[in-house]
Amino acid sequence: MASLLALLSAALWGSSDFEGGRISKRYPAISVLGATQLISLVFGTVLIFAVGETHLTSKIFFAGAAAGICGYLGLICLYAGLSTGKMGVVSPISSLSVIIPMTVAIIGGESLSSTKAIGCGFAIIGGFLCSGPEFSQGVAPKSLLLAVGAAFGFGTALTFMAIGSKDAPILTMVCMRIATAVVTIVIAIKKNGFGGLGKKNLPSLIFVGVADFGANAALGLAVHLGPVAICMVLGALYPIFTVLLAFFILHERLHKAQYVGAVAAVVGVALISAF
Q1: Distance between CA 179 and CA 78 in Å, rounded?
Q2: How far separated are the first and last CA of the chain, in Å rounded?
Q3: Which residues does 267 contact at the CB level (< 8 Å), separation at least 6?
Q4: pLDDT per position as a tens digit, 207-227
Q5: pLDDT tens track for 121-146
Q6: Is the pTM higher than 0.85?
Q7: Contacts for 9-12 with beta carbons within 8 Å, 24 or more apart?
Q8: How far apart are CA 104 and CA 6, in angstroms?
């Protein structure tokens, strides 16, 4: 069940990123991010009362808030890096963020069989390749620094998310959104709104916000039920779903590395699930 929830998380994240990317081509990415984060908070608040997960402790709050802040810092680095035009450098390196929570989990006492460890390796490589790596023209120090910053921010966020999710996965995600909502409101005040977003964008924004929260919640539940290392690796396969949606809906051409990445990811999931 934990593995299936982690894969569901990857599918939801990939779908959210796909639709969020489409909106961000017409509006400022930071505005799209802010609006969808607020929608996620509303959806998550309704959900915690629906499931009855309302017992908030200081551990859950601080873990969730820290995850939210670290994740936002990671996004700032990611967007800044993408603005340099080095998507083929920034996106793949940032996808390696899963190594951080995986390492923390193993140091904390989790163990992997040799087969599962090999499967994790295939899955991580698959996610990296599906992000479309392009290093043929060299790597500028600024792009590299921002990519590493994004990976560190996301990886630290996932680590704190896992800590809180062991006790209360849904409540942890709501605490994440509370932290990001504060940042969002500050940005909205400075920008006098959300960069031209209006009612016509609401369906897409709701989809992105709900799918993003659903992805976080599914991964949190996966971690609550199963090993952190395995769940984080499977949840990190979201680039594959984004690429597949771009291929089937937008008819974007895939690079050879992305085909190889998809195959590597399938092999990784098979090894992790079968043994």
Answers
A1: 19
A2: 15
A3: 119, 122, 126
A4: 999 999 999 999 999 999 989
A5: 999 999 888 887 776 666 667 778 88
A6: yes
A7: 9/214, 9/215, 9/216, 9/218, 9/219, 9/222, 9/234, 9/235, 9/238, 10/215, 10/234, 10/235, 10/236, 10/237, 10/238, 10/240, 10/241, 11/238, 11/241, 12/211, 12/212, 12/214, 12/215, 12/218
A8: 18
* Six-digit token string for 88: 């083929």
CB-count burial class (<10 Å; 0-12, 13-18, 19+) for 238: buried
Neighbours of 89 (CB within 10 A): 24
Structure token digits, residue 93: 């390196």
Taking CA atoms, 74 is separated from 51, 64, 91, 181, 207, in Å, by 30, 15, 12, 16, 22
CB atoms within 10 A of CB 41: 21
Contact 194, 188 (CB under 8 A): yes
